[in-house]
């Protein structure tokens, strides 16, 4: 008698961050689609640097079992520092099982295509002539993820921990006729929060990503390489510029002529990130606590563990003012890099974040 009473919910969101200046989102969600106990969601986001759309169909009791079935299609266009404009589209099929309130796992099969534009530089008439050609990268992957979450509150955690482990294999044999890149991606992340007297909380976050190319290619595809620096990884460094390289281009075809150069983010097959925060209460506004935060960030990018050196680790320190709202943290942060690379201001930079970055 109640199955047709729910016509769904509509949500509108507005957000801001220093790496994605302004964006708006609109979503429609119906958890009892056609009165069958299935869920459908349509969501779109439009921002100055990112535009995306996603449609999701979910069956919480797949074929009468305790498995949740999730079918999604997505498209995303973004302007990136590392590779310029990227257009990503594809879909995924996910089977999820919640073992207990704190423990869940899922298996995901995903197909995606990424289009980017690569520059072709021709030297003529004493100046650079740049053409752009479309380059496509297909990635077809399959793999499991396990999440163990013992935090007291996923939006505004004050104690507990969360551990995530994932592995996925991308292979050309997982979808024909697509020519998928061949690699293995291993991921681990952990978050721990320790409450102390007087409302002080110590938070630690660790993230590790390891890409293993195979099939004769020593490097991950450009669109799958790992980058760091910016609001959500190592603060104090410009977005994706934890590690950079200088690319030189001649100004004319004649020898001994001056050259121009560009600073380009340099990714890697392996990424390591650590974030340590000390949070302490300052005041309250409309019953919402205002916290002071001192933090230390560290990260490194490399192509193999054999090539990793102590000097590859870049660090920063900073402070923040953080408002604790019922739906998450709003944080204004300032960080100073200790080993700024090309393209990063050595005096530091401001970050604006919503929620924990790790």
Offer a quick outline of the entry.
This protein is an all-beta fold and 358 residues long.
Features of this protein?
358 residues, mainly beta, 16-stranded antiparallel β-sheet, 18 strands, 0% helix
Describe the protein in words.
This protein is mostly beta strands and 358 residues long. It has strands at residues 9-15, 23-33, 38-47, 50-59, 68-80, 84-98, 103-124, 127-149, 160-170, 183-195, 201-213, 244-250, 259-265, 270-285, 288-302, 314-325, 328-337, 349-354. The strands form two sheets. A 16-stranded antiparallel beta sheet has the order 1-2-3-4-5-6-7-8-9-10-11-14-15-16-17-18, with no helix packed on it. A two-stranded antiparallel ribbon has the order 12-13. β2 (23-33) and β3 (38-47) form a beta hairpin. It is globular and about 75 Å long.
How much strand content do the residues show? Answer: over 45%
Q: Give the overall form.
A: globular
Instruction: Count helical runs.
Output: 0
Low-confidence stretches: 123-129
- Summing up helix and strand content along with how strands pair, one would put the structural category as mainly beta
Number of strands: 18
Distance between the ends: 44 Å
Radius of gyration: 23 Å
**Largest sheet, strands/sense/barrel:** 16 strands, antiparallel
Task: Give the fraction of residues assigned to helices.
Answer: under 10%
Mean pLDDT, all residues: 89
- Please provide the ordered H/E string of secondary-structure elements: EEEEEEEEEEEEEEEEEE
What spatial order of strands do you see in the largest sheet? Answer: 1-2-3-4-5-6-7-8-9-10-11-14-15-16-17-18
């Amino acid at each position: 008698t109640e199955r047709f009473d729910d016509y769904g919910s509509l949500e509108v969101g507005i957000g801001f961050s220093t790496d994605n200046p302004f964006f708006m989102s609109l979503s429609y969600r119906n958890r009892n689609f056609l009165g069958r106990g299935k869920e459908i969601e349509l969501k779109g986001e439009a921002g100055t640097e990112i535009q995306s759309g996603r449609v999701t169909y979910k069956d919480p009791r797949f074929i009468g079992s305790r498995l949740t079935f999730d079918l999604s299609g997505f498209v995303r266009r973004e302007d990136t520092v590392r590779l310029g404009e990227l257009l990503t589209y594809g879909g995924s099929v996910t089977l999820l099982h919640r073992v207990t309130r704190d423990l869940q796992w899922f298996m995901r099969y995903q197909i995606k295509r990424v289009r980017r534009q690569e520059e072709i530089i021709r030297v003529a008439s004493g100046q650079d002539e740049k053409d752009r050609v479309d380059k496509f990268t297909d990635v077809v992957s399959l793999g499991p993820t396990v999440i163990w979450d013992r935090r007291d509150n996923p939006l505004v955690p004050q104690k507990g921990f969360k551990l995530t482990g994932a592995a996925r294999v991308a292979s050309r044999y997982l979808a024909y006729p697509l020519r998928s890149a061949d690699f293995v991606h291993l991921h681990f992340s952990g978050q721990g929060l320790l409450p102390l007297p007087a409302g002080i909380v110590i938070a630690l976050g660790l993230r590790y990503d390891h890409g293993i190319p195979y099939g004769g290619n020593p490097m991950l595809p450009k669109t799958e390489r790992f980058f760091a620096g910016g609001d959500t990884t190592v603060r104090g460094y410009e977005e994706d510029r934890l590690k950079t390289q200088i690319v030189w281009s001649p100004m004319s075809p004649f020898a001994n002529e001056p050259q121009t150069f560009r600073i380009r983010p340099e990714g890697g097959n392996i990424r390591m990130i650590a974030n340590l925060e000390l949070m302490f209460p300052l005041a309250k506004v409309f019953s919402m606590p205002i916290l002071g935060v001192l933090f230390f960030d560290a990260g490194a990018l490399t192509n193999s563990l054999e090539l990793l050196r102590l000097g590859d680790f870049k660090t920063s320190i900073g402070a923040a003012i953080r408002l604790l709202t019922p739906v998450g943290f709003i944080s204004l942060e300032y960080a100073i890099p200790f080993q700024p690379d090309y393209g990063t201001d050595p005096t530091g930079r401001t970050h604006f974040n919503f929620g924990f970055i790790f």
